[in-house]
Automatic annotation (TrEMBL):
The organism's taxonomic lineage, starting at the top: Bacteria, Bacillati, Bacillota, Bacilli, Bacillales
Listed pathway(s): Glycan metabolism; L-arabinan degradation
GO biological process, one term: carbohydrate metabolic process
Protein name: Glycoside hydrolase
Key word Coiled coil present: no
Keywords assigned: Glycosidase, Hydrolase
Keyword presence, Lipoprotein: no
UniProt record similarity statement: Belongs to the glycosyl hydrolase 43 family.
CDD domains associated with the record: GH43_Bt1873-like (cd08981)
Site (Important for catalytic activity, responsible for pKa modulation of the active site Glu and correct orientation of both the proton donor and substrate): 130
Pfam families: Glyco_hydro_43
Source taxon at top rank: Bacteria
Molecular function in Gene Ontology: hydrolase activity, hydrolyzing O-glycosyl compounds
Length: 297
């Protein structure tokens, strides 16, 4: 099969795992063709050695017939934890609200098997999405996730402690902030009274400061900003006045190349089915993340 460039891959919410064991990069994301309608087949993975040429797609997750969700397979992230690969992904059905479930595999290419029978780790009855893994200063796992604006209007960001094996929530969710706290966020919806929270991703700056990339609507379309904690995961959190990326792209995450370079991947634009993964080089300048040129260009 002919290798693909990123411009040929229709994915939203890209996530790249750098695997030292295999010497390869693994790209996951929301399939653009079934992001909003149709029944997804599951999640795929693309594989690269240089971030330029990609092989695939390979099937990473295919649901059993009794899997609870039949639509909106969104934002898969794969994190390595205690020697295994854990996929955090959001799902929805006609009978059940959207939630983030956790799946596990011994390999970045899968097959990924749902933990806890596939039951979402997010609270029952809440409309939630975009769970991501965070390890606190004691090495204990947390999931950061969004409560959707379609339910609460002013989208909310939460953190919940996880059990050591990542199979379930261990405690009640803690509210970190609301979308309208960001000066750059603009209202959406029919009445222009709602604010979006999307795509959290946790990062430690060189000085140890804990920051969070997250996305919402901005003046120029889909936008990604930076929140900062003056403590640990529980905050308090403040919002940078200016976004990290403002030109109709977002849902980003950071990863390092095998050479140690820090990179950011987001999807651009936010319009379906035009969205494509894009990779930028990033520099940490003091307390700032500065986007430079595209990687591989």
């Amino acid at each position: 099969m002919k290798p693909l460039s990123l411009s040929e891959i229709n994915l939203r919410d890209p996530f790249i795992l750098t695997d030292e064991r295999t010497g390869a990069y693994y790209l996951y994301g929301t399939d653009g063709a079934t992001a909003w309608s149709g029944k997804p087949t599951g999640f795929d993975v693309y594989i690269s050695r240089d971030l330029v040429s990609w092989e695939g797609p390979e099937p990473a997750f295919r649901p059993d017939e009794d899997f609870w969700s039949d639509r909106h397979y969104w934002a898969p992230e794969v994190h390595q934890w205690n020697g295994r690969c854990y996929m955090f992904a959001s799902f929805k059905s006609e009978q059940q609200t959207r939630g983030t479930s956790i799946l596990v595999s011994d390999s970045p290419v899968g097959p990924f098997i749902p933990l806890f029978g596939g039951k979402p780790v997010t609270p029952d009855g809440w409309e939630c999405l975009d769970g991501t893994l965070h390890a606190d200063d004691e090495g204990q796992p947390w999931m950061v996730f969004c409560r959707e604006w379609v339910e609460v209007k002013d989208g909310e960001m939460y953190a919940v402690r996880l059990s050591p094996d990542l199979s379930r929530a261990d405690g009640d969710p803690i509210l970190l902030f609301k979308a309208s706290d960001a000066p750059w966020a603009v209202a959406v919806g029919d009445n222009k009274d709602s604010y979006i929270t999307d795509g959290p991703y946790m990062h430690r700056l060189p000085d140890g400061e804990l920051v969070m990339l997250w996305s919402s609507a901005g003046e120029q379309g889909y936008t990604m900003g930076l929140a900062r904690s003056s403590g640990g995961i529980e905050g308090p959190w403040t919002q940078d006045a200016q976004p990290v990326f403002a030109k109709d792209g977002g849902h980003g995450m950071l990863f390092r190349t095998f050479e140690g370079e820090l990179c950011l991947t987001i999807h651009i634009p936010n319009a379906n089915p035009q969205e494509r993964p894009v990779i930028f080089k990033v520099k940490e300048e003091g307390s700032r993340l500065v986007i430079e040129g595209q990687a591989g260009q």
